[in-house]
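Fold it.
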Amino acid sequence: MTESIRTRLATALCTLALAAGGVVIAAPAAHAGGPDCANYLAGGNPARSTIGEELACGLGATGLPVSKDLCTTVMSKVAQVGPARTDTACKEASG
C-alpha cells in the first residue's frame, strides 16, 4: 500500500511540474499586452511606471482565466491606481 501512495504522489508532483513548466514557457508569448498597459499608465513614458503597475500589467497579460481580476486587484489595491485607469489598463494588458 505504501508503494501505491508513493507512486501517486510522484505522479501528481510530476504532473504539477510539467504544468508549471508549460505556463513558464507560454508566459513570454502571452505578455504582448503588458507593455501596452504599462505604457498607458506611464502616459507614454515607460520610465514613469511603478513596480506595482508593471506587476499588475504582467498578471493581466498572462491569459489565465483570473488574469483580469488579478490585474484589477493589484492595480487598485497595491499600485493605488484609480478605477477608470485600472479598468482601461487591464483591458490593454489582456490584449
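The chain has five helices and no strands.
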